[in-house]
Amino acid sequence: MTVMETTGTRIDTCAGTPQQNRRPDGDDHYTISEVVAFTGLTAHTLRWYERIGLMPHIDRSHTGQRRYTNRDLDWLDLVGKLRLTGMPVADMVRYAELVREGDHTYGERFQLLKTTREDVLARIDELRGTLAVLDRKISFYADAGHGLASERSR
Amino acid sequence: MTVMETTGTRIDTCAGTPQQNRRPDGDDHYTISEVVAFTGLTAHTLRWYERIGLMPHIDRSHTGQRRYTNRDLDWLDLVGKLRLTGMPVADMVRYAELVREGDHTYGERFQLLKTTREDVLARIDELRGTLAVLDRKISFYADAGHGLASERSR
DNA sequence: TAGAACCTTGGAGTGCGCTCCAAGCAAGCG
DNA sequence: CGCTTGCTTGGAGCGCACTCCAAGGTTCTA
């Protein structure tokens, strides 16, 4: 399939996830319901992603039904990961556009990835702060046991 | 300033944040716009929080204007932290109700906190997974430099 | 005492990310 | 052949978390 097969190393894959029962490249013509099973997204959402430009144009069968490839699944994996970071769909669409526009958008894509990386780090830090608060409250509840009228003071 | 001055140890405080220019307890009768400045929330949001039961009943001046206390600010700090975890507002309202209902809800509150803690840990793990993907892509972009037609394969 | 700035309310409106609907075509099965 | 199951489309609808509005009362500064 793709470009890298011939090159030996595949650096730019978004795998990371199990890649459960995918078919080999060349045989990868998944129906929308198979993709639903792979990704956990609904068919509605998959079609909507396509409408808003978050997916590339998906291959069609001779009767016009969608046939997704392994590459499409990889892209959906990435989208899923980015979604977890809280990145707005509009920003992901922007990234998808950059990819479609070709190599001259290289720099912009690189920047976008680095910015996102920083955002994720910040997000993790925020969560750690929250975790500290929760741990403090939890040990308060655990210790206090009964003389806990003071909980009102939070 | 604040509470800790007088009591020495306060376990169940949600501080963690700077507690910037708060007035001492007893003098703590903040207007809504002061709370806006403290929290970064809008006045609309503060009033809405109250309407939906996410805030306790707020003291009023003799003419009916809201006067927030240090304790209210502490609560808003906690709410802010929980919001960062993605906890739905409805769940936070539930917690607020438990607090209002009194000590007999101790166990349920404890469980809720522990569940939330687990959620936060899971969330951090997800983000770390995403970070790994981003780092892989970033180093791909950094290395590739120019022969990057293959980026299409993501 | 004037004027600006701030506060009050219930209810309506907004933006995001889906989520669903209706009407119709297509493929597989007994 | 009829039936079920799955897919297609554009557009409408939904739930969440705000966000704003209109119309009026209050508080502060000069």
UniProtKB/TrEMBL annotation, chains A, B:
Residues 1-28 are annotated as: Disordered. SUPFAM superfamilies: Putative DNA-binding domain (SSF46955). Residues 1-21 have a biased composition (Polar residues). One of its GO terms (molecular function) is DNA-binding transcription factor activity. Keywords: DNA-binding. This is MerR family transcriptional regulator. PANTHER family: HTH-TYPE TRANSCRIPTIONAL REGULATOR ADHR (PTHR30204:SF98), REDOX-CYCLING DRUG-SENSING TRANSCRIPTIONAL ACTIVATOR SOXR (PTHR30204). It holds the Pfam family MerR_1. Residues 29-98 form the HTH merR-type domain. InterPro entries: DNA-bd_dom_put_sf, MerR-type_HTH_dom, MerR_fam.
